[in-house]
Amino acid sequence: MEKILIFLLICFSIKGLAQDPQLFENEWYLQKVIIDGEDLFPPNSNTEPVTGSIQFDETEDLVYISYCDGVAPMINYDPSENLFTLEDEPIILVGDCIEPANTDFAVVHFSIFYEQSPHLAKNPFSYAFNPGSNGILILTIENVEGDRAVYGNELLSNQTPDILSFKLYPNPVIEELFISSNSN
User: Fold this and answer.
1) Other C-beta atoms lying within 10 Å of the C-beta of residue 97
2) For residues 5 and 13, what is the distance between their CA atoms, to the nearest angstrom?
3) CA-based radius of gyration for the chain
4) CA contacts within 13 A on the Cβ side of 34
5) Residue 108 near residue 143, CB atoms below 8 Å
6) Contacts of 109 (CB under 8 A, 6+ apart)
7) Other CB atoms within 10 A of residue 24 CB
8) What's the pLDDT score for residue 28?
9) CA distance 183 to 94
10) Neighbours of 157 (CB within 10 A)
11) Which residues are registered as beta bridge partners of 25?
12) Widest CA span in the chain
């Protein structure tokens, strides 16, 4: 009986060690994707603001990946390293984006994790945590091809941008150009 209890404790402790708690303690907001060494940023849209994200669900062994559309595949963690694998052919949750820039970027974000068709996962994925500026924690996920998605635990964008208005005069400029603004 003692051996069975020890065996069960070991099994449950391995499961607990398999998942880095920082994955679950934070909401992760997409900052950029890096494909073939090129930084690609989400479009800045005033009419249809979209926040990409990834959320790890510890209790269900699921991960929710979203940008316009979303997927919720099963996830398996490697207990010895910061690696995970995703199931192939996940259920795709159709979003409500209509702007072409957003729908195009959704495909780019999704391409970090899956082939276009068939939807085969680009397993395995490594992940690393790094400190960012102003106390932000950065999560970088890298697929087997070396492409990455970079997330922060704080939302960086402002969905209601401040519009700056200013005047330039005279037109045409002869010797001096004046710039005036109503703001400070």
Assistant:
1) 18
2) 12
3) 22
4) 12
5) no
6) 30, 33, 42, 52, 65, 67, 149
7) 12
8) 94
9) 42
10) 14
11) none
12) 95
Tokens in use for 175?
């010797």
Token duo for residue 134: 């102003």
**Closest among 128, 149, 152 to 71, alpha carbons compared:** 149
Rounded CA separation 14/43 (Å) = 41
Spans of the chain below 70 pLDDT: 1-19, 156-166, 181-184
Please state the three-class secondary structure of the chain as a single string: CHHHHHHHHHHHHHHHHHCCHHHHHCCEEEEEEEECCEEECCCCCCCCCCCCEEEEECCCCEEEEEECEEECCEEEEECCCCEEEECCCCCEECCCCCCHHHHHHHHHHHHCCECCCCCCECCCEEEEEEECHHHCEEEEEECCCCCEEEEECCCCCCCCCCCCCEEEECCCCCCCCEEEECCC
